[in-house]
Amino acid sequence: MVRVGGWSLIVGALLFVGVFSYLASEFNYPGVLDGPATEVLPNLRRGGQLMRAAWALYSLLPLAFVPAGAGSYLALRDGGRGRMLVAFCAALVVAVAMPVGLMRWPSVHWELAGAFETAGPDARAAIAATFDGLNVYLGQYVGEFLGELAMATFFLLSALSARSRGGFPAWFGVGGVVASGSFFLGALRNLTPVVNIVADLNNVLIPAWMIAFGVGLIRFGEATSPGERV
Question: What single string gives the DSSP state of each residue in 92-120?
Fold first, then answer.
């Protein structure tokens, strides 16, 4: 289970980079998150089923934190059982909050984009208001703020537990503390523009640390109890 958790983060990060790159080139992501409905919805529809499928895949990638949370708990619980229980719960929050936020694109936003094509001026205004409201609630507050705070909490508590447990190299603990600090700051970008640079950096740092964390689990996360198998 520890190895499964590590590999889930590695594969999830690589898929994240691939899908993120596609959305960045074809849909101006993440800049599109600040765009008006009059521009974003027609562009979403023009992307066709491939664009919709990319968003659907993207929304499922945070589910990697379910096996990652379980594997991390098993590997690091000797460094603080209560702390890793909270970390596991934080990983589950990531696996719920981020997909809920992202799934608005291939589902509700896709349908709004279809209705927008034939709607009159008054209906378009109502669609635009719905679009903006969903972006604020599901996107900014649930997916980004809650999801990224939970992710930062998971990585921070795991790093602290690794330092207490022993058997992990220094870079794993130190890197986890530094990365989680950056993730905490990036989650505040909807509250203050001061951290926008950090948020942009996190688009690279998040998959990089997921890979590093996954490699650390695989190489150093074996259970300490002889003969233990989970």
Answer: HHHHHHHHHHHTTIIIIIHHHHHHHHH--
Cβ count within 10 A of residue 65: 28
The string of pLDDT tens digits covering residues 121-139 is 999 999 999 999 999 999 9
195 pLDDT more than 70: yes
**pLDDT bucket at 19, cuts 50 / 70 / 90:** very high
End-to-end CA distance of the chain: 6
Instruction: List the domain range (segments joined by +) for residue 97.
Output: 2-219
Which long-range contacts link 46-55 to residues 24+ away (Cβ below 8 Å)? 51/26, 51/27, 52/105, 52/106, 52/110, 53/106, 54/19, 54/22, 54/23, 54/26, 55/23, 55/102, 55/105, 55/106, 55/110
Domain assignment present for 226: no
175: its two tokens: 């890197």
Count the neighbouring beta carbons within 10 Å of the beta carbon of residue 150. Answer: 25
d(Cα 185, Cα 165) in Å, to the nearest integer? 27
| Residue 126 covered by a domain | yes
